[in-house]
């Protein structure tokens, strides 16, 4: 009888993450309509905010005369937030339907199960981001340059990972899709209490104070820099640090809940 | 007991059920209260400098201007949530049980709409309270506040009629839920969040003819300046138009549902 060849743990873990990501991709391919709300919502926000608040660039303090350019990174990040929150809702559905229980009895470590959800959300967030960017460019937003483009996409994918950690944490905590509004509202608040609508100096006093301490402000500024000016390391590294911090905190919380989840 | 009193009891019971259902389910109350409140706070704080733009109507603060928009958003989402809840009732067979009961069919729809109107009333009180707490004044005083409450409640009833018609026609909660983005589109293409004159084309032109603009101006006018009879009349006519549309669509959808089962 032939002896079974032991698969190294790292390879098994990668294969599991790949399988979970493929499952998320299959959901998208088999039910294309499921992706529509995630794409539509940020697009509507982009078109709506641009149509409504476009005149704001007439105020002193804007570094660009194009509100499309100013607002498009926000809509892309919002798309990432919605996608990440949707990953949390899907996880809650998996919990309600017993699918997660089956995963938990597998030999896959908990962090691998969480990584599959989070990385799938990251990859998926590029769809609404690309859609919104295409529309913004068609409407006259400035091209951010290759470096600005890459930084924006990196920020979007990472923000989706942050949102997926948040959504997963809540899904594992409440074990119900009823927590969906909390997942979405939390991300919406985190992304919009920044310099989303106007530069820091033009925000109302209370919002200015929140935006200063909200780490996502750094992410917004890093993602926006190419659209409203030139790309610099000084504008980029605070965004990277903020993302690393958010991922560490929310990832730890989600992992702790995943480890606590008993069969 | 007279038939009228019996029907009123049915409408009241179904309306109360609708309100309780909304407050018990976070996914129903969140779009009506939490999201509009969050957006009101963020937009007020983020775009507060807008009041300095040339052509912006004289207002005490951007919050004072935005209150009507937040109420409008809330009532639109209340109509959508009412439609979703009705569709869930259809999916779960609850509506079929009501159809087989000795009560008029219109009372079933009216009960749901009474619940939506109650949520509209709650939303108007909620946003008025928020406005007053954070320093927004109602220029026309108590009369202006009462007018806002009346228009928001009536508009919620009107919009709820359209939501109910779609729920009755499709019988699918996910289809009605799918209209959520459309609600946002219609809102953005009105003067709910910004003065129409300062909006960018094509939103500006569309907002000029959007019935929601007439309603929101009717709510906003007494808050930021004073009563204007023509503004109020336009708002009432817009609400009436939506009521007639909702009644027509609901009637057709109900007939269709009873025919196909």
Describe, in plain words, how this protein is organized in 3D.
With 263 residues, chain A is mostly helical. Chain A has one domain. Chain A has helices spanning 9-30, 36-53, 67-96, 99-104, 110-124, 126-139, 145-174, 180-192, 205-213, 216-228, 233-260. The radius of gyration of chain A is 20 Å and the shape is elongated. Chain B is 79% helix and 0% strand. Chain B has helices at residues 3-24, 26-46, 62-91, 94-99, 105-133, 141-170, 173-177, 180-188, 203-209, 211-224, 229-260. Chain B is elongated, with a radius of gyration of 19 Å. Chain A binds chain B through residues 36-37, 40-41, 44-45, 47-56, 58-59, 61, 177-182, 184-185, 188-189, 192-193, 196-198, 202-204, 206-207, and chain B through 25-27, 30-31, 34-35, 38-39, 42-50, 52-54, 178, 180-181, 184-185, 187-189, 193-194, 198-200, 202-204.
What's a concise summary of this model?
The complex is a heterodimer of chains A (263) and B (261). With 263 residues, chain A is mainly alpha-helical.
Layout: helices, strands, pairs:
The complex is a heterodimer of chains A (263) and B (261).
Chain A: H1 9-30, H2 36-53, H3 67-96, H4 99-104, H5 110-124, H6 126-139, H7 145-174, H8 180-192, H9 205-213, H10 216-228, H11 233-260
Chain B: H1 3-24, H2 26-46, H3 62-91, H4 94-99, H5 105-133, H6 141-170, H7 173-177, H8 180-188, H9 203-209, H10 211-224, H11 229-260
